[in-house]
Amino acid sequence: MLRLLKYEFRKRIATLSVVLAILLLTQGWALFCLCTKEHADQLVLPFTFLIIFGFLGTVFLFFDGVSTFSSEFSDKKGYMMFLTPNSPGAIVGAKFLYAVITVVGGYSLFHLFAYWDYSLFINKWENVKEGTKVLEQIARAMFGMSLGNVTLYGMVFGIIRMLTLIAFGYLAVTISTTVLANHKYKVFLTIAVFVGVLVLVGVLTSAATNFLMETLTDQIGLSQSLETGMTALPEESNFFDILKVIEKTKMAEAMHVGMVIDVGFSVLQWAAAYFLSVVLVKKKVSL
Amino acid sequence: MYYLTSALVKCKREAKEGEEVEFDHTRPIYMQVIEDIKLRIIRGELKVGDKLPSTRELAMQYQINPNTASRIYNELEQEGFCYTKRGLGTFITEDETMIIEAKETMAEKLIEDCINGLKQLNYSENEVIALFQKKIGE
Amino acid sequence: MLKCESLTKKYGSKLAVHNLTLNIEKGKVYALLGSNGSGKTTLMKMIAGLTHPTSGTILYENQPIGIASKKEIAYMPTDSFFYKYMSIKDVGKYYKDFFQDFDEEKYKELLERMELSEKLKASSLSTGLGAKLKLCVTLARKAKLYMLDEPLNGIDIIAREQVMNTILEAMNEENSFIISSHLVDELETVIDEAIFIKNGVLELNRSAEELRAQYNNSISEIYKMIYLGKGEF
């Protein structure tokens, strides 16, 4: 498995290096501007680039993951893997691991840079620092944690979403190259299956999550405490007063429960996509 | 006519001894190698009592597969043309009469083929004899 | 050592291999003969575990095709299949990483004989050199069953003898070969058995010497007769 993983990276090393180089250059530019420029306005351009990069980076991670998987089935290059005495589980597993490593690596690196820039930014301009205090308060009220931790959680959820998307992408590719291998409308059906599975799984998980959340929040007593808290508020109270009410309720606890449920379902989805892919490859591989 | 040409091919093969053998693919390969080995023994290229190449070497020499090569030695052994010494290899028989016999059968076969070919061209026996005399006289 | 029983492979509605039953024995050399698209490659791919049969079974040493069979079967596809980044040296490293029976020294020796430099990129080789590389890396394995799909494709007449000799040298009583080709002449002296496939159906599977003795004809002539539908076999 590790050997297979090694070759996953060896194959893509050129592309990955280029993407990494672009990220490093953009970050270098941002750092340079942060240290030398006097006006915050002058940071707009490098920061915009960094944000665009972040967006394109996620798109890249998705397509890189799915295309490296599908190339293994769609042309002769697949012989390299399937001729070797490796189980379908290991071959598909190496692909999943590759996706996990690139997505986690990419997201972490990007967020690390973003955090670095952000701390430099708020330390340099005191007035910005004031503004962040509001955000801090909201974070504490809603999630019961610091703004930094909220961002960290956001990153983790981004990673989880992306991996779910890639896992279903893999599954769709496997279906199209095994069961549908010789079908006339292969491409169309594959996309239909991909979207169909995503929607179906989305509906099912959200229904299940809602059900779980409702029962759990009832147990915590969230809605009651929120209602009593809100009605007790004086009429001329401001935004910060509302936040204080929320902080007193069990909103944060409910959020944490929601996160745990979400992670649990995602892991289930990955496992399902993996096992289904392995079974299909084992029973139906057709290169 | 066919036999004549095949005899000619055979002569050609003898001419470029040591080089690879051109097989006639319409006949079993092992038989042709056996004929070639016998021929070389008769002509004295391979001496009585000599060690023959290993099956592997034989296969490479004639560019045939090793199974065919071992079959060739089996057949030669059965005919009494060679014998195997355990762990030492295959050797040509020391029995000279066998070789003379083989030479005679081979000559007979050549003549027979030749005469049969000529008969198919409607040559009479006397004409055949005349043809031979003329050819040898040249 | 290898048993195929009522093998059928469909690609969509197209029948590539139909109800094929075949037995491969240890120590023998088989020619898999048939025109392009007759199902030779499909059959080999199924044995190599690259494609699943639609129905029927393949047993290698009484086990279904899988990790164990892939360890002992060396398949050489017709197409070039190495990764783009690979140099000839990288190809060797890859095989060494994944096949326990791969002999690095043997690989180097074969490359030298075929005059292939380890530094060359595998993907930029000419057809002839690419074919030689595939052969080197396949024969450098000490496999039990070698399946060579069109080993002479793209190899010029002068190099053919060298290639055939290299294949011959690898043969011994412990291994078997299945060699596919539409150049029947080249295989004539090398094979024990001839397997004829036509439109995915096994037409004939017999000893080459027996066939020559019985029909007074070369395998390549018999091949032509089968494909032109002349005579009973």
Order of helices and strands of chain C: EEEHEEHEHHHEHEHEEHH
Instruction: List the strand order in the largest sheet of chain C.
Output: 6-7-8-3-9-10
Biggest sheet overview of chain C = 6 strands, mixed
Give the proportion of residues in helices of chain C: 25-40%
Oligomerization status of the protein chains:
heterotrimer
The biggest sheet of chain A, with number of strands, parallel, antiparallel or mixed sense and barrel status, is: none
Strand content of chain C: 25-35%
Using only CA atoms, what is the Rg of chain A? 23 Å
Poorly predicted runs of 5 or more residues of chain A:
none
Radius of gyration of chain C: 17 Å
Number of strands of chain A: 0
Helix content of chain A: over 70%
**Low-confidence runs of chain C:** none
* Alpha-beta content class of chain A: mainly alpha
Please, what is the average pLDDT of chain C?
91
**Globular, elongated, flat, extended or rod-shaped: what is the shape of chain A?**
flat
Rounded mean pLDDT score of chain A: 83
Give the beta-strand count of chain C.
Answer: 10
How many helical elements of chain A? 10
Q: Structural class of the helix and strand makeup of chain C?
A: alpha/beta
Largest interface: A-C, 26 and 27 residues
Model description:
The complex is a heterotrimer of chains A (287), B (138) and C (233). Chain A is mainly alpha-helical and 287 residues long. In chain A, 86% of the residues lie in helices and 0% in strands. In chain A, helix 8 (222-231) runs antiparallel to helix 9 (239-248). In chain B, a hairpin with a 3-residue loop joins strand 1 (82-85) and strand 2. In chain B, strands 1-2 form a two-stranded antiparallel ribbon. The two termini of chain B are 22 Å apart. Chain B has a domain at 98-137. Chain B has helices at 2-15, 29-42, 55-62, 66-79, 96-120, 125-137; strands spanning 82-85, 89-92. Chain C contains 9 helices and 10 strands. Chain C has a 6-stranded mixed beta sheet with strand order 6-7-8-3-9-10, sandwiched between helices. In chain C, helix 4 (104-113) runs antiparallel to helix 5. The mean pLDDT of chain C is 91. Classes of the chains: A mainly alpha (287), B mainly alpha (138), C alpha/beta (233).
